[in-house]
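TOPIC: backbone geometry
CONTENTS: sequence, structure tokens:
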Amino acid sequence: MNFLFDSGIRLILLVQNFSWLEAPMRFFTFLGSEYFFLFALPVIYWCIDSALGLRIGVSLLFTGGLNDIVKMALRGPRPYWFSAQVKALSAEASFGVPSGHAQNAVVVWGTLANRFGKVWAWIAAGAIIFLIGFSRIFLAVHFPHDVAIGWILGALTLWSFIALWDRGAVWVKQKSFVQQMFLALIVSLVMVLLGALAFYGARDYVLPQEWMTNALRAGDPLPAPVSMDATLTSAGVLFGLLVGAAWITRRGGFQPSGPLGMRVLAFVVGLIGILILYLGLKVIFPDGDSLAAYFFRYLRYALIGFWISGGAPWLFFHFKIVRPNPWGGNLI
């Protein structure tokens, strides 16, 4: 492993000599970040194509949960934790391997390329995926092998969803709403269980003092890599998103249509709903590492997921913000 770490540090030092790359690398790392997806996915789901938005959202949450679990299992350092030689141009609290940005980029941009089904789309997606991964190396938050493993896991997730999504959707549609809700809960709880196993396997792990010392130089966020928070977030949103999609489908489905201005209004209204649930429930619900705090974190994000796929579309129709599309709106 020392060979991978040492050679990775040498590569980072080499590319950081090209300081003019910092601004474009920050841009590409943003294209693989949670903040970008939190903005882009509601735009796709509420304003462009709900079926595509659901597919991207489910695959992204699945691969995000997988990434959190593997991170706690492998417990790899960030480059700027490992070596004081590199310049930390960003900071992260979680373990380093695999790269979540690289993994998510393959899933999201690969799904979009598959949706278009054109050679140019795959070329563009490949370029964006590579640049997002390279940006993580340049910023010294990932070793090259972190990025490579993220790409591999992302590719496996993408391939699985391309191969199984349509057949799975046909099978799920044959179930009752209660059965669909139960299936969503099982999938979500399996993610929580695997995350809990990884968490309890790593709960007594102590970061080497050298890693902590180097990380302190980079500032916030400080390393806090052994946590259930990210897994509970992914699992909760996944459950809510699937239940909301099943619920709105039972009410005729949702596929955005209408004037651009009304779609923008739908996005604004939907975003306000997310903020109310996220910020309001954060104040009300307990925080920490207790079972109660874990439950309420899961519940908060499940409600956000349900709002995105079911609650907000129902509100759009109820107040005639977006009109139903007669050409179809089944999500699952």
Notes: The chain is about 75% helix and 0% strand.
